[in-house]
Specification:
Layout lengths: L4 E3 L12 E15 L4 E13 L5 E4 L3 E4 L14 E6 L5 E8 L12 E9 L3 E6 L3 E2 L7 E9 L6 E3 L2 E5 L4 E10 L4 E6 L14 H22 L8 H7 L1 H7 L4 H22 L5 H11 L3
Parallel strand pairs: 6-11
Antiparallel strand pairs: 1-4, 2-3, 2-4, 5-6, 7-8, 8-9, 8-10, 9-15, 11-14, 12-15, 13-14
Helix pairs in contact: 1-5, 2-4
């Protein structure tokens, strides 16, 4: 899909034990962000496993991906007054040019507009510059609001140029920029604490693990009731792993501590699974280990 996105089809059936499908694919040279799992991969050949709830899609590190707002259902209903941009981690800078026309007429060769967007990622400081729109087309909005999304990020300690919130499900900082004239530039700056100096490492694979844990916990409770003790509490480390998203949503400023506790819980849960494996069916034990990629 263009130069910045590689979409991969899952063509093999899921393994009857693990529930995962093996997917083989090739990525062009460079770093690529696995949008389904929240990982960074190098270019080249890969063989990975994906759950049914995951859609393998890889985005070039540093890319800026324009998107429709979540409430837009089709192209015809998009009025251009609000635009979403996603800034992909893994590189120190990136740029793109947003092309627009009226979307319905044949006048796109003469009547169109372009908006250049640039960003820099210095780990503890991220800056975005949106240039004034150049050109015009019928129905072009005079003013536009922006939603800037930064996946796999710590919560910022300060933001200039907009108001921020944290999307715990995507582990993303979201900056809302109020409507501004399309003929004026937009500048946004995010500053982060010392924990951001380590870059992407703290987030590598966490997004996918959160989703998989949420999917498997109900089955784990059922197995726990059948083979351990009905009504007994499931292991505390699993509760910590499954509760990662909720804890981050409640206090995004503490995401560093939450992720550290999650890493400890993953190690502890692996040890508990070694004990529970004596009572659980072997197939279920294998599924849990494979789905959560226990260390």
């Amino acid at each position: 899909v263009g130069e910045d996105i590689v979409a991969v089809a899952v063509a093999s059936p899921a393994d009857v034990t693990t529930g995962l499908s093996r997917v083989e694919f090739w990525l062009p040279p460079g770093k690529w962000y696995d949008a389904a799992r929240g990982r960074l991969l190098d270019g080249g050949r890969h063989a990975e496993e994906y759950a049914l709830c995951e859609n393998p899609r890889f985005v070039r590190a540093g890319a800026i991906i324009p998107q429709f707002p979540s409430d837009v259902r089709n192209v015809q209903s998009f009025d251009g007054r609000r635009m979403v941009l996603e800034f992909i981690p893994g590189d120190s800078e990136g740029a793109t040019t947003l092309y627009e026309d009226d979307g319905v007429s044949q006048g796109y060769e003469r009547n169109f507009a372009k908006t250049k967007v640039e960003w820099q990622d210095e780990l503890r400081r991220v800056s975005v510059h949106i240039s004034p729109r150049e050109g015009a087309y019928r129905g072009a909005p005079a003013r536009r609001a922006w939603e800037l999304r930064f996946p796999s990020r710590f919560a910022p300690i300060s933001v200039k140029g907009g108001k921020w919130r944290y999307d715990a499900a995507e582990l993303a900082v979201v900056v809302e920029v109020a409507p501004v004239s399309a003929s004026e530039p937009v500048d946004v700056e995010l500053c982060f604490g010392d924990e951001a100096a380590d870059g992407f490492a703290a987030f590598d694979g966490v997004k996918g693990s959160i989703v998989r844990a949420r999917e498997i916990v109900a089955e784990f409770k059922e197995m726990f009731n059948l083979h351990i003790s009905r009504g007994a509490a499931i292991p505390a480390p699993l509760l910590t792993i499954c509760g990662t998203e909720g804890m981050i949503a409640a206090k995004p400023e503490l995401i560093g501590e939450v992720l550290a506790k999650r890493r400890e819980a993953m190690v502890s849960f692996k040890e508990e699974m070694a004990i529970l494996a004596e009572k659980f069916p072997a197939e279920f034990t294998a599924k849990v280990r494979a789905q959560l990629e226990l260390p």
